[in-house]
Structure formats: C-alpha cells, structure tokens
Design goal:
It is built from ten helices and no strands. By secondary structure, it is mostly helical.
C-alpha cells in the first residue's frame, strides 16, 4: 500500500494539479489579506485577539466558497490522469489487488487535500504577520495564533467534505472524461449553496451543502436545518462520513467487477 501511495504521489506531479493547489492557496491568502486591509478600522480592537477573527474568516471562506469546487476539480483531474494515459489495464494486471490500487489512490487524494488545507493555514498565518507589519495597531504580534483550535476547525471542514469526496471519486471512476464528473460537482455545489442559504432542512441530506452548514459561519441562517450536536461531531458531519463510506464501498465493488479494455 505504501509503495502504491508513493507511486500515486509521483503520478500526481501533473501541472494542472499544481496550478489548482497553488491557485487555492493564493486566492485564500489574497481574500483574507484584502478583507482585513480594506476594513482595518472595523478589525482593530484594543485587548481583543485579532487571530480569532482571522481564523474564523479563513475557515468560513474555505468551507463556503473554496473547498467544494477545489475538491471537485482536484479529484476529477487526479483520476483523469489514469483515463487519459489509459493505464488501468496495466495497473489491474499488476501483482497488487484491485482494492489495494483503488484505496491507495483514494488515500493519496485525501492526503493531498489535507496538505492543501495545511498550506492555506500557513499562508493565512503569514498574512496575519504581514498585516501586523503594515498595521501594528491590530496587535497580531501581542497574541499567539490559536493553532490548536484552528487545526481542529480545519479538520471539521475536511470531515464535512468527505461525502463529496466519496461521490466525486465514484463519479470520476465511472466516467472516463474530466468534464462530466467536474460539471456534475460544480452544478451540485451551486445547488448546495442555494439550499443552505435558504435555510432549507433538505440541506442536511444533500452532501454538497455540508461544508456550508456543518457550523454557523455567520454568513446565513441555518437554524431551521435542525443540526444535532453530539459533542465531537454533529449530525451533518456524521452524515458526511456515512455518505463517504457508502460511495467508497460501492465504488470498490464496481471496480472489482470492472472489465478493462
């Protein structure tokens, strides 16, 4: 499995994927920096930790606007490499079992998504220190970044994405092209935002709404969705995990019975 994951990382050294990761990290940093720079008078508060607002803004923008289209395009591109190179037959006649190949690619995708989120966290932290140089009155230097809370919230964003990851991985394996699974994902992303913003209870059962509603991002009201909090996780995050498991298992079964030309 480790050898296959290493090979998958090598295969994903693909320019469009590098550009996509770089774009996500850059656009997040630019949005965070610009939102603070042009609204500095409302952000600077005496004896108030500025990192908390920076962390909240970063995770909200990532969850609501950036994470879903990134995951959709990233998975579509990652699996398209296999279809484009037409190497499924070569992989499936190798000594490794089909399930091992299937889960090694999935593990690689999950690790790279997490790595991208870590880069976002690092760049956002850098933005905080740059803002402190320009506007010392914000007092970023007088407080420590809340990395523990930040990482915890980022992981919960990742958990809310698991259902989408499972669906997109399933779709990308079923369709040989890049356009169909990517288009389906983008359309569902738009529908997910609309349902979530409308405070519609259906959002709790629509995985593409999960990153927007798994917590209150202070962007729209979600009180009618009736999310149950179980402590470590809530009902939306548990639904995301369940959706992920169902689609991944279904995809594995189909791959085991797949005829490769």
């Amino acid at each position: 499995m480790l050898a296959l994951i290493s090979a998958e990382f090598t295969k994903l050294k693909y320019p469009p994927i590098y550009w996509l990761v770089g774009f996500v990290v850059s656009i997040m940093a630019a949005l965070i920096f610009a939102s603070h720079y042009f609204d500095i008078n409302n952000i600077a508060r005496i004896n108030v930790d500025p990192w908390f607002k920076l962390m909240t803004a970063s995770n909200s923008i990532l969850a609501v606007f950036i994470s879903v289209p990134f995951v959709v395009l990233f998975i579509s591109a990652a699996v398209f490499i296999e279809h484009h190179s037409n190497i499924w037959k070569q992989q499936y006649v190798s000594p490794f079992g089909r399930s091992t190949i299937y889960y090694s690619k999935l593990a690689t995708i999950l690790l790279l998504v997490l790595f991208t989120f870590i880069l976002v966290l690092c760049m956002t932290t850098l933005c905080g220190y740059v803002l402190n140089i320009i506007f010392p009155e914000i007092e970023f230097a007088f407080y420590s970044p809340p990395f523990g809370k930040w990482i915890q919230t980022t992981l919960r964003v990742f958990i809310s994405l698991l259902g989408i990851i499972g669906i997109q991985y399933f779709l990308s394996l079923r369709f040989k092209g890049f356009l169909i699974p990517a288009s389906i994902g983008v359309v569902f992303f738009v529908v997910g935002i609309i349902i979530g913003a409308m405070n519609n209870p259906i959002a709790k059962f629509f995985p593409y709404s999960y990153p927007m509603i798994f917590r209150d991002h202070k962007m729209f009201t979600i009180d009618k969705i009736n999310i149950t909090d179980y402590g470590i996780l809530n009902s939306v995050e548990l639904n995301s995990i369940l959706c992920f498991v169902l689609f991944i298992l279904l995809g594995n079964v189909l791959e085991l019975n797949r005829k490769v030309d």
